Amino acid sequence: MWGKVVHVLVITVFTVLLAFPFYWMVITSFKQNVDLYTMENNPFVFNAKPTLDHLKFLFTETRFVRWLANTTFVGIVVVAITLVLAVPAAYSLARLSGRWGERLGIAIFLTYLVPQTLLFIPLSRVVAYLGLQDSLWALILVYPSFTVPFSIWLLMGFFKSIPKELEDAAMVDGLTRFGAFAKMVIPISTSGILTVVIFTFTLVTQEFVYALTFISSESNQMIGTGIPIFLVRGDVYYWGALMAACLIASLPIAFLYNLFLDRFIAGFTVGAVK
Amino acid sequence: MAIARARIKSVGAAQSPLLGAAMFTPAVLYILLLVAGPFSLAFLYAFSDARIGNTEMHYVGLENFRSILKSPSFRMAIRNSFIFTICSQIVVIVGANILAIALEKTFRGRGFIRFLILLPWVAPIALGAIGWKWILDSIYSVISWVLVALHFYKPFNAPMWLGEPHLAIASVLLVHSWRLMPFSTVLLLAGRTAIPKDIPEAAAVDGAGFWRTQFQIIIPMMRPILSVAVLFGLIFTFTDMTVVYILTAGGPFDSTQTLPSLAFAMGIQGSDLAAGAAISLFLVPLLIIIAYFMLRVAHRAEVN
């Protein structure tokens, strides 16, 4: 009996604490400004009629839609680059190079630990040198440097779980090793590849430091930088629109990530859980 | 070992070493160019006088480090970086262990609860941090409203959460812990689920209570995954600048500045690339230590 009460209590307290900011975004998005900015009002309830004004403002008066489009565009191109680089590399490390494959895989994984905040200063000069300042192509060039290592690591685990006999059989039937990889392994690896697609895409949407450093103009922002920097005008915060923007941008990403969570976690455990 | 060797022989490098190399070389080159390259440049810049807008640069020896070590903001930044990293890890590990125990049982609505609990980790942190900025607003903070309603403070007299140094530090800590808690929880949950059910059951039969089972059996068995959770947590907090940048931009009076946010302020906003690079290099020692422990965990997993 007591065990059950404590259980419910623990779950409730943690859920409320962790999800509260998102609940607050929902409430704020639909409140009229008179309601939001009257200090006497109870902030937990609607003291005036709910409104869609903030959403209207967000979609018509700001570059929010443009930022969503920029983020999607960068996301798709980075996913493509990541797949082209990571899928063959992961397969080769999982299969062709035996024990050294594992070691090299770990070495590549370790580069994922080198943070953006260490590389952004030299990279800002590299980007300037290439003439890519304030261009989405700067992000497209740089983002694979952190999406590829983790993707290789995730895919290695995946390829190792595919029985080798499958390729051996295909090769006996006259396919080359590369043919066996392209025609046998890739088609049955769609779920592993999909995992990498989703993971890469969410990493792109979550990135902040490089987007902040390389992109300056309002129309070239990604959602993660456009919302905090350009929806704030001087000292005036458009809290309603700001919260609506955060909510709309966060939820789809959270939903996608949640679907594939167990596979990402398998990568993060570094083999510590079998 | 013999099996491993036989495997290498059967499908190993001997068959098509060129193909193997051709398949992973592009990825390795890309990483070398965009991670190892700028990493080395960071060292080069730290010993130079590189500035934004000036393509020339000269070797200046330890000059950057000398001026950084003298600056009070740098000392503040290094202190804060450690405070944020260590304190938030303590909060996160305690909280995540409790939450993982609670989530291990199946109950109705568990999937939805898991989605809600995960939000801080999966939503872009820049956006989550703006949510907090509104919650901690100097005038319209909901926390202040509750405290006023409960008569802890008079109206208009509630503390400025992000405006006073100590409260601002506590706020940044809170947001870091909030952000990492879900990540550690799901890692620990994965660790718990992997423990065979008969082990805690046998302990219960032997008369071990709940706490004894947890502290003497389960948690020791979870040591590898606990280390992974802590190592990732340390790295993510220590190298993050998003939370501080959005909540306080390092203020008030540099009181929440961290190494990454100071590197950004000096190197990019202040155009002093050399100083920024030198500051960010102070991240490296801890990164090396973490990489070493990460390798140990990975190596043990490989051996077992």
Please describe what this structure looks like.
The complex is a heterodimer of chains A (274) and B (304). Chain A is an all-alpha fold and 274 residues long. Chain A has one domain: MetI-like (MetI-like fold), CATH 1.10.3720. Chain A has 15 helices and 2 strands. Chain A has helices at residues 2-29, 33-36, 53-61, 64-96, 98-111, 116-129, 136-142, 144-160, 164-172, 177-188, 190-206, 209-214, 223-230, 239-259, 261-268; strands spanning 232-233, 236-237. In chain B, 44% of the residues are buried. Chain B starts with a helix and ends with a helix. Chain B has one domain: MetI-like (MetI-like fold, Orthogonal Bundle), CATH 1.10.3720. Chain B has 304 residues and is mainly α. Chain B is built from 15 helices and no strands. In chain B, helix 4 packs parallel to helix 8. Chain B is flat and about 75 Å long. The chains are: A mainly alpha (274), B mainly alpha (304). At the A-B interface, helix 1, helix 4, helix 5, helix 6 and helix 8 of A face helix 1, helix 2, helix 4, helix 5 and helix 6 of B.
